[in-house]
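Here is the promised in-class demo. Please do not try to memorize the tokens; focus on the logic of going from shape to residues.
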């Protein structure tokens, strides 16, 4: 199926690994030119060299207030247009609410919420000009609270609300804004948790993964490519009637309405 994305330009933040890398690969396969943003220059360059379309590497710390403006300016300077912004950057510290530090809370909000907000603000005029789209990669923790995920849950809930806010604004300006809530996806971060659980329980990693998935009430962990496929859909004209959509791609983990 031709998603009519060829010749368009996308910014993907957090593109150096995991879900972000898979998104970049999927969009490039659709013929999009890409601006790849993350803090790891080496990983971005390795990714860019493997993609079939023109890609601009932009190493930046999007926690810094001026970084999103510079990122969007670089995209426009290179490609002259912007059709899609994928806000994927941001990881938050897990742990006991009573022991999480002020710095951990500040850092959690700085990148995933404020970085995404600033990227949206900087990109908006260019997306408006081209009737483009924003896809926010959020997470199921924003819908269902968990004791060990206080920071992430709060940040994700805020970003889901921001998605709805911008979708409302986008009705007037012609910008489509939607979000994806990944469940437990088989990234490096999840593999580290599986390895730790396996060591604690004295079991192999396959059994550890099975037990962890079972505890979440899902048949298996997801793959980064499955999130990337959803991004490509939401970015395309096939999703023209999606505005403010919150898409749970979580294997059935979220059971609330």
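The designed amino acids, position by position:
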């Amino acid at each position: 199926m031709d998603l009519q994305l060829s010749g368009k330009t996308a910014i993907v933040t957090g593109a150096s690994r995991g879900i972000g890398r898979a998104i970049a690969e999927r969009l490039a396969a659709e013929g999009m030119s890409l601006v790849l943003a993350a803090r790891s220059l080496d990983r971005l360059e390795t990714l860019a060299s493997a993609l079939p379309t023109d890609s601009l590497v932009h190493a930046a710390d999007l926690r810094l207030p001026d970084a999103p403006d510079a990122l969007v300016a670089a995209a426009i300077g290179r490609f002259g247009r912007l059709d899609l912004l994928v806000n994927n950057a941001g990881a938050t510290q897990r742990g006991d609410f009573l022991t999480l530090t002020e710095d951990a809370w500040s850092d959690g909000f700085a990148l995933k919420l404020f970085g995404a907000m600033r990227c949206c603000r900087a990109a908006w005029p260019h997306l408006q000009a081209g009737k483009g789209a924003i896809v926010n990669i959020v997470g199921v923790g924003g819908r269902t609270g968990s004791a060990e995920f206080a920071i992430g849950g709060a940040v994700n809930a805020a970003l889901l609300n921001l998605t709805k806010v911008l979708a409302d604004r986008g009705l007037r300006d012609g910008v489509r804004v939607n979000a994806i809530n990944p469940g437990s996806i088989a990234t490096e971060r999840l593999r580290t948790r599986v390895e730790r659980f396996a060591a604690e329980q004295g079991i192999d990693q396959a059994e550890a993964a099975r037990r962890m998935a079972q505890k979440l009430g899902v048949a298996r962990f997801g793959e980064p490519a499955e999130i990337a496929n959803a991004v490509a859909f939401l970015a395309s004209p096939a999703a023209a009637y999606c505005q403010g959509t919150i898409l749970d791609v979580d294997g059935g983990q979220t059971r609330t309405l």
